[in-house]
Task: structure prediction
Amino acid sequence: MAATLDTTHFPGNVINNEFVPTVTTRHSIDPSTGEPLWEVPVATKDDLDNAVKYAREAFKTWSTTTFQQRAEMLLRYADAIEANREPLEKLHTMEQGKPLSLSKTEFDLTLTWLRAFATMEIRDEVLEDTEERTIYATFPPLGVCAGIVPWNWPILLGLGKMGPALVTGNCFIMKPSPYTPYCDLKLGELAMAMFPPGVVQVVSGDDELGPWMTEHPGIDMIAFTGSIPTGKRVAASCARTLKRCVLELGGNDACIVCDDVDLARCVPKIATLSFLNTGQICMLPKRIYVHERIYDAFRDAMVQFTRENIRTGGGFEEGVVVGPVQNRMQHLRRRPPHRPKNRPRRRRRLPQRLPHHPLHRRQPPDTSRIVTEEPFGPIVPLLKWRDEGEVLARANDSATGLGASVWSRDVARAERMARRLSAGSVWVNSHFDVAPHVPFGGHKESGIGMEWGVMGLKSYTKPRSLWVWKKVFEDAPAST
Result:
């Protein structure tokens, strides 16, 4: 393996530890400049069929390796990523648009996650042990698992699927987002030197590739992160072959601020998290409910902090917190849906850069789109509340349930309120805390199943009950 990756050349998809070029290619853009990036492969159905064939063949051997062997390879892979992280971080900022400091954070987290997965062995569980029998719960691997990776956090959410699949004995096929294919292809290139052929493959394509994967009878499980509408299509497609799926979908996280908080301590964190990655993270504060006694003070403090500290700009500019919106689709979704009255209709050119400044919406109706729908951009509504039961009902009155938080000096009160929130992750005096040993997922339309932690790793297995009777033949006559 070369000391440093060439991050300007993408010779093909990574299939069976070889570069497989394609006739058709495509490119994404740098959202900070609007300039085109490099050409990448667009897989055909035959490419996917071959990747699945090689993965199924590799599984026969890979599934028989020990956990220790798999963990050692995963740790070597993490070391290879760390040795090449500087060019990868720059590449990530170019393709995703996030500030370079946040790209570094994503790689920090990814390396922590991979190294943690290498310590998380899923062992047999003894359910009963008597003189007559032992009953185990065992967790053999599924086979071939595929990860469909989003564009907002493609390194952590890509390798955060790969790591659990590999350590539990599965082979893995990654599909990067068409908007951010570059780093994931390079991570597949690094994997070629670490894992046997067919164990890790990366297949880049267009909008047809995802449905081919979810429908493919040779793929045993899909791990998908993305929007709710697409997640529903993934689930429906997987059902045709009774394929396992884990879906981490959109959120519209409620953040409840009580009247006893220390504004100087909570406002900076809430404001920063609201606009992190240009608001393009599913588990950020999306609806901020502030007690009416402190609403005006909280609003003014949050606006002031945002103006003074949340700088917008290109990903390589110093001190930038909010980079550009990642793609034109998202940029258009953030634009106002109606033009003011009496303004003449005219054609508008979309800007080459995709900027978006942080916005606070003050006291919109609970029925407005900014409250009921996930904006997935640097826009956040501030809403008043008075009664504890009423604000909990409003927070839970959503089709989504990914994350939520309660902020109060009275930790017992905050925990009591937190336990009444319907979300897969709930925080007290914080938001968007994640860890490799802690499972996360969503309630309601925010997803199915969990990722990470022991619970998440078991999603990549097919649980089996094993009954061992010890004395059935104890008194039987010896065979002749």
Confidence is low (pLDDT under 50) at residues 336-341, 343-356. The CA atoms of residues 61 and 406 lie 48 Å apart. The radius of gyration is 24 Å.
